[in-house]
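Homework-ish question, so no full write-ups if that breaks the rules, but can someone show me the predicted structure for this set?
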Amino acid sequence: VNPIDKHPEWELVEDYVLDFLDAGERAAFEARLATDPALAREVRDAREALSAMALASPVTPPPALKERVLAQVAAEAAAVPDPRVLPLRPGHSRLPIWLGAALAASLLLVVKLERDRRNLEGTVASMLVSAEQHLYEDLERDSLIARLVDPGVEMVTLAATGEEKPVVRTYLDRAGKRGVLAISSLKAPPAGQTYQLWFIVEGNPVPVPSITFAPDAEGKVFIPSFSVPEAAGITVAVTQEPTGGSVSPTMPILFVGATTSR
Amino acid sequence: MERPVTSPTPSAVRGPQDDATLVRDLARGEQRVLAELYDRFAPGLFGLAMRITRDTSDAEEVLADTFAQAWREASRYSSERGSVGSWLATIARSRALDAVRRRTRRGRLDDAAAAEAEVAPVAVGQQPATPVATLIAKEQATLVQAALAELPPAQRTVLELAYFEGLSHSDIAERLGEPLGTVKTRTRLGLRRLRESLRQLAPGAVQ
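A: Not a homework solution, just the prediction itself:
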């Protein structure tokens, strides 16, 4: 039996690796790819053959290029920002005066009341958490608006595979690697279950850290910020999982959509 | 032109597992392994970048960006999804096609040159940067070229237009003046036949 007769989706392997599929076809193919190891092997073999063809005409690069490449990476490594530092947009390049004043006052108190150091540190920590929270909320709201109106943001509408047809949309900032999820008219999951967001990259499901969710009383879900992987093509999917989420998706995929930008 | 190269040393002969180990080391921040990956893959990747961009300056940029991206994304590489060579080639192809699109948008693309099917050999550099790696790449390339030569020319043409120029089915049909269905069939048959030929002639090229 010809393997393609047995597995009709194998007919699309070549089209998939050569980027011939449209967004819907690609999303459906990748949803299948995520759960079919044999199909994944076919895709891998086809990619290896293309890569062999790609690398079959070696040309010696200019000798100086190696040093340039190594220097470029060394410079990037040195310039990688500390992820613990929240990036501030222009206009927020300095701490707000009230936060600076709070910090200064807190530090003075620490010096004066050394005997009560432990209690005071707790107070200062609470002040800082509160102050930071307000600062983060302001920045988050500003950056959310900026993310949604940025021309580089791609809206991906997820198609429902079942009878329920809520509106499920993600807004993906590929350059900034951040995304927004907005859903309306979503039914509550059964008891003990939750919804979970996934990315499927090159046929492999990638859980979005900690993004499990349930709708509010009006059936709405809004997640203002989550990480988006850097990849040429991304399929976004939602499944239903046991409360707490899963490390691999439980079939079937309920909602699925794919980016059109590469 | 490249100078003749001498025989390879055992330390230069690496397999896919060694490559994957190098990338794991890279993901741990060990920049020194980047030089080894460069020696092993730069000739093939530079040839790919030249083939797509047809411009030495753009190809150099593509090669530099490819290794920079590999460094940034090393932790996401999975040997289960493919070989290191395939991973790097995918990055380089994407970067090179982006470079061509940018150039096209700027209106600097030489249409006449772009329409040529083959790229003339490129003489760059007075000294081969990595003679041993270049020799190994050349030996492998000779076997892959033999596998490619076994493809019917029509199938090879559609495969090359799709891969090296990033053309869609309909773009290729228009370029060749062939029906869309014919192009689809040739593409699928061509890639399947290439996989089979590589398995027989150059098993080391497809891990």
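Now go work out the reasoning yourself. Hint: The CA atoms of residues 99 and 132 of chain A lie 8 Å apart.
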